[in-house]
């Protein structure tokens, strides 16, 4: 990890970046000032007792989301789907999944958000469709069908697939179609065939579909797996090293920027949208090309270096706070001089942050969840809160493989334990910690049966700790994690410096404390986060001195924030001007 970073992070380039930003102040944009809340609809709120979250259930919770202070909702795929990958396999891009509701519900959702001064961005899954999509059904029907070329078909080689590409979910990335004898490419499950972006008709269909949702009032898109849409010419075999990190290869298609610029020109231009690309596999160095405002591609991207710290693919490994700080600094550079960043610690594909970076035990839970919230909201970049993160929802316990729902976890199991390559215990040890299922347990609204998520039987287990960790209880407690989030979000909204200010890690070498400043002109804040469960004797570097406490999760006063930082203590402080030091 550190080796990878040092390549991306020459000290000189950091200095250069800061200087150039000072020369060209960041342009104000609504999507830089907003805090986004990610809704994984299926697990959010069920209105009709079928055990599956839905759009009317979400509409019922809009007052709650407004009370949190978030301005934008990112909605998980709401499209018609056979649900092989919980909606990331789309059967019809212009219809709403009947399990989630109707088009009228979607329209009510947009209206309900707009009434509250809020906006909606939708998930855009255009690297692949479902194998049940009409285009694929046509495509599969034979080599002469006009839709054949909507997907990527190749002849096999030596009685096997066309090359050795692997699926991100495990196994070959090629599936043989018995009727024609040809294979189609799927970077994810075999029920998720990859679209052929070389085909201009595919691009036009996608653009028309995007305009359809924009006309319905959506304010942007979260673009799923977007950096995978350009395939490598010739589809050569992968080396063994490449097989270990597929995402780094699959993002190197030579036409990715052509496609994104074309999409921008055709659909996005002049609409002032939030466009966030999932950049799984894109290095920090290569990111400015995607997010530079001058280039007209995306407004920001998600990197996975932070949420994936402490794991190699799905296997857990040791990590340190210093590693984390190095990644934070590296990611900082990824905006380039005129791009923007995201900040997130959770999403629907990763474990709960309080279980991964914090301490989910009763003693550490509240303080560590607040410490992480401080990092999430106070970094430079648009913060994304994942549902339940604002109450410190935790991972859930898994006994055996039968407890998992995640198609990814099942794939990993089949490719390891299933073929006798690893022991069940060894694989479970990692899977329990990293499975995407951890993020997908139903939202914990209250202490009642099924956590107030549904009146029926929930599609997936409710975490038994909903008795102690839930919205109702935290809403009523002024010192709760939830209310700390509310304060953090208000604070960010009230201080331009906390939105547009430069970021500087002022203590890269400290092994436990994250200390960074946010600076805009003469205005400067210090953010301190004790990332461990021990009291840290801490002296600020460079003679810096705290002059005012804006927020502190231990309610410390100016006199007693330092020198002893309590376990998981965190806060935002104004620094004394240099003359007073
Ligand atoms: O979990 C991951 C990153 O932490 C990746 O393996 C993930 O699969 C990758 O980022 C792509 O994810 C997206 O596309 C998938 C879908 O299953 C995920 O839920 C989605 O976020 C296929 O559409
Ligand atoms: Ca339902």
From TrEMBL:
It comes from the Bacteria. It holds the Pfam family Alpha-amylase. Keywords: Isomerase. The keyword Isomerase applies. Residues 38-440 form the Glycosyl hydrolase family 13 catalytic domain. One of its GO terms (molecular function) is isomerase activity. Belongs to the glycosyl hydrolase 13 family. This is Sucrose isomerase.
